[in-house]
Design goal:
Strand order of the largest sheet of chain B: 8-9-11-12-13-14-15-16
Number of strands of chain B: 16
Strand order of the largest sheet of chain A: 1-2-4-3
Radius of gyration of chain A: 17 Å
Number of domains of chain A: 2
CATH class of the largest domain in chain B: Alpha Beta
Structural class of chain B: alpha/beta
Distance between the termini of chain B: 164 Å
Strand content of chain B: 15-25%
Strand content of chain A: 15-25%
Largest sheet of chain A: 4 strands, antiparallel
Order of helices and strands of chain A: HHHHHEEHEE
Radius of gyration of chain B: 43 Å
Oligomer: heterodimer
Number of domains of chain B: 2
CATH architecture of the largest domain in chain B: Alpha-Beta Barrel
Largest interface: A-B, 15 and 18 residues
Amino acid sequence: MKGIIFTEFLDLVEAQSGYETVDAILEEAAPPSGGAYTAVGNYHFSEMVSLVTALSQQSKTAVPDLLRNFGRHLFGRFACLYPSFFKDCNDPFDFLQDIERHIHAEVRKLYPDAELPHVTAERTGEDTLRVQYRSCRPLGDMCLGLIEGCGAYFGVEFDIQSEPATDGKDFAIRRLDAASRSEPRGIEAIS
Amino acid sequence: MSPPEPVLLRRIERERAARIAAERLLEEKSLDLYEINKGLRAWTTMLEDIVKERTAELTKALEETREANSQIEHQALHDPLTGLPNRRYLRQVLQDISKSEDDGRRPGIAIFHIDLDSFKQINDTRGHAAGDFVLAHAASILQSLVRADDFVARIGGDEFVIVARTDGNMRALTLLADRITAELARPVLYKRNYCRFGASVGIAYSRSKISDPSKLLVNADIALYRAKHAGRGRHAFFSSALQKEIIENQTMAEDILSGFDQNEFFPIYQPQFDATTYDIVGVETMVRWNHRDKGVMHPAQFLRIAEDIKVIDRIDALVLERALGDLISFHNSGVVIPRLSVNISLRRLQDPNLAKSLRGLKLPKGLLAFELVESIFLDDSGADSSLTRTLKRLNRLGIEIEIDDFGTGHASIVGLLRVHPTRLKIDQELIKPINKSRKQRRLVQSIIEMGKALGIGIVAEGVETMEHATILRDLGCDYLQGYALAVPMTAPRLFHFIKTGAWRDAEAAPCSVPMPGAEDLVSPKFA
């Protein structure tokens, strides 16, 4: 797993709960890498599992909620770190439909060994979209958070129904606030 | 409230470790990039090499295409045998000349039209390879004789054309023509045998710039025709007089052809006499042409043209047919002509149907004689030649052979005697001076003696006076023909002449003999 996920996760924990919490979960999880994450490094997924588990125990918050919260935060960070993927898009459905074809394709060029999930999106009506998340990692809730972050970024309120699937999760998304669909509200809208 | 010290210390330691890890990663990635860059450079070099190689291939292909195109263009404008420009190229050059600016220096052009003499014989007897060899030789000779900026083309068969700039200096043009005829007259060694040929040259030139140089080409062709007729191996310049003559010849050729349709050709007869008894022994039949505008014309005025347009055999046949008709009609009216001598051309002798048509007439032996001029034997004198065979065949049909104009031609006596002539006709040029020159008398006497020794009868032509007749009789000549005794005359006049025995008076009183030029030229239409 890319180091940026770890650094972003720990940055969020620090921002929300202080570095002592970060230190506590690192001490608790005792990851083999020693917790000295760098955004450009690669780390085993199990370290993330240990960290989230430690945070859940520490904060008495369920893992799915933590992951969903992290996903929402991560979308904003992506928008901030990689603006080129966002500049020509004004619609959250278009963006979600473009993930596999455009964003993941570019990521693979940079990191040929990256293990990316399959995220396919299909319009089911004028204001509805069906997203299928498939991965060897159980991060469906983080995906839900990312979709919510996407809606917030573009200023569109979503009604999202999710259901588990083999190797992933399916999401049925309905646009609630059709009037403002083409006015992205930006990163502030996510937090 | 800041975190407790151990937490901060761990944080510092983690961040230091993270920095080191990041730096190590950076170093690794830098090395990776360096290697990738090196690989890319190798790839670039390889690609550049491929591009260079491909560019060289394409350049070569382009050059080959260009070369092929220029070769195609060259082939379209050149004769493959000699490498000289062809007729198409010549046309282009003449067009270019007509369009070119006059620079004031040598503004005129001269066109030499060159035709090889006796080339066909080389092809026929030595084969086409020899002919090709001669053509290539002629091409190189012509190129060696002209200036660098002159143009030489082979326009077909054995015909060449030179286009040369000229200031109108006729001497310079003559000099070049003489060189051409002299150089091309030299025999060429081909496969250990010499090929002999020659060249005739027609020249047309213009001193000043000419708007349509192709006219000069036509004129050069006319001049060439003249050079050929003048006897080959020569040159002739085009002139307006020549053009006029050519046009007149063309008109005459057309008139001859329409003359056949209008029945304008007719025979006239000049009797031949026994030198001792003055009995009529036969008549020479000659042709006359009653031209609708020009009146009655002598063969000298039209036979050359008739030969050119290859109708001389037709005239011969027509005269023979008419003469035989007259003979029969005379016979039916009680006038007997012992022998009919008819002039015959080589072309008529070569007619494969001649013997067949004569055989059908079933003529009594000795009634018909063919008069052949010596020149016929010049081109065809072998013992087994087709001419000799034809004459033998005619002989078997009872047709006699006479050699006309004997003593003025260039044929060998051996060649003449080979055809077993019945009679020799001594040319009038030899007969005329005998009343004044003893030497000439001796010459004629020796011909007569030769005839007697070989059993060949002798006819003297051009017997203008009774003095000539007497001398010839005394020299032992067998037969006489000439104005002293009878002028050429039409059939009705001949009938009257024989019936009345008019010449007997002339024999008694020589002064009443018609003078030369008093030939009876009245055509049968008006007789």
